[in-house]
Amino acid sequence: MRLLPFLGVIGLALAGPAGAQTAPAGPATVATHVLARMIDKGERLSAADFQLEQRSPATARNALRPADAEGMEASRRLMAGSAVRATDLMRAQAVRRGEAVTIALVNGPLSITTAGRALSGGGNGDTVRVISLSTNRTLDAVVERTGHVRVAGH
């Protein structure tokens, strides 16, 4: 029973002096770039898709700026009002799986083209698998631009 008066003194010390007021411990907010509208998977983002709103620091952490996200594609559906992170985006795809492509074999001045179909998707400079519709062979090709891939000559 001797500890009770001692605990009362500790309680007063922790509570602070009588009449002292402390600031409410509410969360601070910071200006954060969030989406102004819903973005579907595969849709390219532009700076016009963003607006500035006040959000908690936890929400703002690792949020991309519009300049960093511009021209990239959503890797999943993104909801309006959400902050965009690097994991939500992927490089814009110039060739998509299942699309028709033009396959070019270039070896010096010789250039041969044929029709094909993409078996995988990718952006400019990415290696994708394609199938030649004339020979039914599967090839590895490098994406040059939208709908065009190049196979290296041997």
> How many domains make up the 3D coordinates?
2
Helix content: 10-25%
CATH superfamily of the largest domain: Antifreeze-like/N-acetylneuraminic acid synthase C-terminal domain
Any idea what the radius of gyration is? Answer: 29 Å
- Helix/strand-derived category reads alpha+beta
> What can be said about the biggest beta sheet?
5 strands, mixed, barrel
Total number of beta strands = 9
Mean pLDDT: 85
Q: Helix-strand pattern, N to C? A: HEEHHEEEEEEE
CATH architecture of the largest domain, please?
Alpha-Beta Complex
Q: What count of helical segments does DSSP give?
A: 3
User: Which parts are unreliable, with pLDDT below 50 for 5 consecutive residues or more?
Assistant: 6-15
| Strand order, sheet with most strands | 5-6-7-8-9
**Cα-to-Cα separation, first versus last residue:** 93 Å
CATH class placement of the largest domain: Alpha Beta
Which overall shape is indicated by the principal axes computed on the Cα atoms? elongated
Features:
154 residues, alpha+beta, Type Iii Antifreeze Protein Isoform Hplc 12, SH3 type barrels, 2 domains, five-stranded mixed barrel, two-stranded antiparallel ribbon, 3 helices, 14% helix, 34% strand
Tell me what you see in this structure.
The chain is of the alpha+beta class and about 150 residues long. It folds into two domains: about 30-90, Antifreeze-like/N-acetylneuraminic acid synthase C-terminal domain (Type Iii Antifreeze Protein Isoform Hplc 12), CATH 3.90.1210.10; about 100-150, SH3 type barrels (Roll), CATH 2.30.30.760. The chain has helices at about 5-15, 55-60, 65-70; strands at about 30-35, 50-55, 75, 90, 100-105, 110-120, 125-130, 140-145, 150. The strands form three sheets. It has a five-stranded mixed beta barrel with strand order 5-6-7-8-9. The protein has a two-stranded antiparallel ribbon with strand order 1-2. Strand 8 (about 140-145) and strand 9 form a beta hairpin. Residues about 5-15 have low confidence and may be disordered.
